[in-house]
């Protein structure tokens, strides 16, 4: 299970991810979320993005499935981090934006629409959802983690199956971490109908 990987490797993952430059994703997302709005950081990892959004004046609620990674995120951000998996998300029309950076990619493809629906339901009508996946079309196991890769051809039918979301953009970028040359990511930006 992917959560166990993060429990076993929390400190190493924190070090490798906390300084990744996500400025482009932040700009695309925050341009569409009301200033000072409420953001759910769904699968916050190191807390890097939660801290960035808090510094920009947003009200941030971080959640993380790994208790050890959540504790590191609390120490890094000073924000409370709730230990929670996607299937435990039950908010309704609470957030102006949901940010799911490299977290939904651990959900098996068959379960992905239901997970995205729970995040959609947590957003107010007109609110924004940003998700990122490793670019590709495979579902695979690697280094103790499950990965569901997504490309443009896979993103459109996923959004259609979830329903209630209008696709704004699909963006392919290089990995923000220096030690991952050649790795590509797909960012999916949507608005709740």
Quick overview:
The protein is α/β, with parallel strands linked by helices and 193 residues long. It is 33% helix and 30% strand.
Uncertain regions: pLDDT < 50 for 5+ in a row? none
CATH overall fold name: Rossmann fold
Number of helices: 7
Mean pLDDT across the residues is 94
Order of helices and strands: HHHEHEHEEHEEEHEE
Secondary-structure class: alpha/beta
Overall shape: it is: globular
Strand fraction band? 25-35%
Distance between the termini: 33 Å
Number of strands: 9
Described by strand count, sense and barrel closure, the largest sheet is: 7 strands, mixed
Q: Which oligomeric form is depicted?
A: single chain
Helix content: 25-40%
Strand order of the largest sheet: 3-2-1-4-5-9-8
- The CATH architecture designation is 3-Layer(aba) Sandwich
Per CATH, the superfamily is Vaccinia Virus protein VP39
Rg measurement, Å: 15 Å
Identify the CATH class.
Alpha Beta
